[in-house]
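Example 664.
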Amino acid sequence: MTIAEKIQNLRAALHQHNHNYYILDNPTISDYDFDMLLKQLQELETAYPEFDDPNSPTKRVGGGITKNFETVVHENRMYSLDNSYSKEDLLDWEKRVRKIVDGPVSYTCELKYDGASISLTYVNGQLQQAITRGDGFQGDNVTENIKTIRTVPLQLKGDFPEKFDIRGEIVLPFEGFVKMNEARIEAGEEPYANPRNTASGSLKLQDSSETAKRPLECLLYSLVGVNLGVTTQFESLEKARSWGFKVPEIAALAHSIDEVMEFVNLWDKKRTNLPYETDGVVIKINNLQQQEELGYTAKVPRWAMAYKFKAEQVVTKLESVAYQVGRTGAITPVANLEPVNLAGTTVKRASLHNADQIEKLDIRISDTVFVEKGGEIIPKIVGVAVESRAEDSVPIQYATHCPECDTLLVRTEGDAKHYCPNEFHCPPQVIGRIEHFISRKAMDIEGLGGETVALLVKQGLVHDYTDLYTLTVEDILPLERIAQKSAENLVNGVAASVKIPFERVLFAIGIRFVGETVAKKLAKHFKDIEALANASVETLENVDEIGVKIAQSVVAYFNNEVNIKQIEKLRNFGVQLKLSAEDLEGQTETLSGNSYVVSGVFTQVSRKELKELIEKHGGKVSSAISSKTSYLIAGDKMGPSKLAKAESLKVPILSEADFLAMLP
Ligand code: AMP
Ligand code: ZN
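Predicted structure in complex with zinc ion:
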């Protein structure tokens, strides 16, 4: 046997033993024998470095140091999940689903593992990279650390596709977590607060041999890619399991919401016996083609729903109420609580949302309150023990003035929140608007963080985001803690931002209610900022997906002289205030005034391309057929009930070829 063969054999054997031990829970050799094989391999690899393999079983022990984790854009975005809390919520979801898909619907029910999300890429059966979720668009490359997790296969087996991504959750099972904390306490260190945060922190350790010491597990739940040879979610779980991944066996197929609820109720009870933390059930439309029909909203898939288990509740005392001022001037009341332990973390504050909420709860200072952890990071107060309240207690007087700038607060009708109207001088608003302007999805100005912005504002160097464009290195250097290099980065980052496309500028300037998606819509529709500034509420409302609230907010924004002046300044600095020639290329109004529903499978263009074509030529895309639909574009395998609906509403039906022929 050659050395190369010997090394190959050892690696294959060790991969298999690892699988037997960690995935199948069924070791076929002793730990001692395993260690001996590993040692042999290590010695051979040291003696013959020319046979190095980044996915060798010896890499499990870590040792690689990552100083800065590289940011990587996800090839396919990592979405969040919509939440539901009751059977009614699920029935509502089912209704929305049935409006879009045809035929029988079945659901895969899985547990919702509470850890850190991860996306693994495999090429030719080898782990290629592991990226954290990050903001969903891009995350950190933590491959070195992930390799040390024994349940992550480094080499797949069976009939795996050539290239795919698989998503899952890195969790820290209770047992290992408790052991880790015992060791920490013994060493005189502070114990970790909860398994989830510890798991997530473990992925970002610089020394991978430290990660290797943590008893992390990787539980997988979804395949992403093309031509994966699976047609349902349930099947993809089974496939992934057969390739060597740890896919929990607790998953079931349900054929109705009643059956889904059976799974939910069963596991809400039994989950306390599970080795790791779960916070709900994830319900997914089983048929992958139906999933594709359903698609995504700006944040979540329409084909999945998380059902949150009822959260743990604790009792504590309300000590005081503070008021926070957000970027838009919105005031959020925050409860200061007597510290209490809730689901593994110490809770000192809770959100009270708005004045109505305070009134509804009739919450008063010194009250005994019930606190719950919802989906948000900050817990909420869900009730008050009225009977144990002191006799002389009085209702809370909601703040009348801004805690930051002392301006009289306003509350417009129909708005739940109070606002500080001093938008151009109230410090958190000024800082918040600039922070929003420079953020990644807006102008993406590198080299400028939140702290620096606050400093620049405090020193009077910057009053609004337009001032960023006149900053020089000499201006910035005298600030505390700013090095030459950072100052240069900042100035260069600002200069580079003039290339950011119009749609993102529109998002960056911070018009209330104009988020990323709306900004995109408005940019596409109006093409330049003058046209948008001149639009009336009525014109705006006629744009697809723009409601009256957004329309009024846009008009109010452009009626404010300060805003107009700022935009003029941005124009002088060369910021993009219209669509680029590239964006406009090929755009027409051929389909203007028509709205389309797209359904089925297409052959010449993908469904996504089809939708882009519609929008490029001035048409609207909607997801469900109604009397307002101008055309249904029908591909292969379109369900019969959608067809029937189109026919009953007399919506004309186009084939893919018919539609493509309509384009210029
Ligand atoms: P949230 O962060 O509450 O929006 O929930 C979405 C996250 O749930 C995803 O990013 C996943 O990391 C996580 N998750 C846990 N278990 C599952 C599962 N079985 N299927 C899908 N997502 C899951
Ligand atoms: Zn204020």
